[in-house]
Amino acid sequence: MLRALGKVIEVEETGEEKAGFISLRIRARVAGEAHPALKLPPGLKGRCLWVERVYRERLRPRKGDFIVITYDELSSLIKWGREPLVPGKVFREDVDADGFPEITFETDLLRCSVAPHRGATLRSLKYRGKEFFVGKGEYLNVDYIELGGVDDHMESGKYGGALSSLKYEYEVDEGEIQLTGRAKGFEIEKAINLERDFPLLTVKISFKARKKAELNYWMRMAVRGVPGRSVILFPARDGLVRERYHFQYLDSLFRALEISRMSLPGVLVLDEAEGVSLLAVFSQLPESVAYRSYGTFFTVEPAFERASLKKGEISQYLLGLIPGTFYSASGFHLGVFDFQEEKGRNRLISSLVTVESRAPELLLRGKRISYNRIG
Prior knowledge:
Elements: E1 4-13, E2 21-33, E3 48-56, E4 66-69, H1 71-78, E5 83-86, E6 90-93, E7 102-106, E8 110-115, E9 121-127, E10 130-131, E11 138-141, E12 144-146, E13 149-153, E14 169-172, E15 176-183, E16 186-194, E17 201-209, E18 213-215, E19 218-224, E20 230-236, E21 239-244, E22 256-259, E23 266-271, E24 276-282, E25 288-293, E26 297-303, E27 307-309, E28 314-325, E29 331-333, E30 337-342, E31 345-350, E32 361-364, E33 367-370
Antiparallel strand pairs: 1-2, 1-4, 2-3, 5-6, 6-7, 7-8, 8-9, 9-10, 11-12, 13-19, 14-15, 15-16, 16-17, 17-28, 18-27, 19-26, 20-21, 20-23, 22-25, 23-24, 24-28, 25-26, 29-30, 30-31, 32-33
């Protein structure tokens, strides 16, 4: 959540001191961001506003002091309404309270939001009202804040970096956003598509080398966790790996797991209490997948094989996100796929039932996989 550093220019008392506390009305000028990971929206620095607060008398701010101004207090200066881009289908709004508007797509089943100003991150995904990603911000280090969602990285083992802070140019139609940008010697194109008739969201990203380059691409999915209820399933070559999310009080004690021998290009996240799942399918088998748990969320981080590109060559990656429901302890039906464990081996099989003769199809690894609509 956005916060700003404000310089106090005027202080008024609005009530009498009681039990060592005093009510104040403070006029402050926005001096800059309160944390380097959350930049201020254009035109905000230098503007003035009034805030009302209660302080201990001995800690009351004076003229010339600095205070931290909250997002709610800043909202009078940067309030983003819900601006329709395609009536009833696409909107511009600030869904994560960072002071910048995201692009939101809606269908009867899914709702997703994309942040062009912050690395074209898929910031929010809702399935029938259940939010998978967005949560309050958590500061992971001096220059990186976790807001949730799916973002891209190209520096091995480093959070943030060139892609997560990249500002993309974009064009929108009723079901897709096309984004373009440049970073670290690459021209980048990204397309995020939300199907209207069934619960499928696809993210495609392409890197075109502007010169000879090495690409270490990995993505990070920061998912809202429910302690004791959220379970992550990894189809490893040695069998199905199940990891249950538990709340971590200290970052120094966070749980980490890395699987380097995946048998299938997919990971399943599920909420056992609500019976709602999210299947992430990749267009190629990750070289490894890491899992990390933090205070209020956990991450799934697939890393792909290093690509050595000549000038003009392109490396492309595809992510499919499919929410749905599960029906047994060993098999999870998502309307799109059945994920089953059979005799110690895992396999992803297409659903055999379709509701229409023209069944939707998802193109992965050159194979068309038919699936049925959730309903």
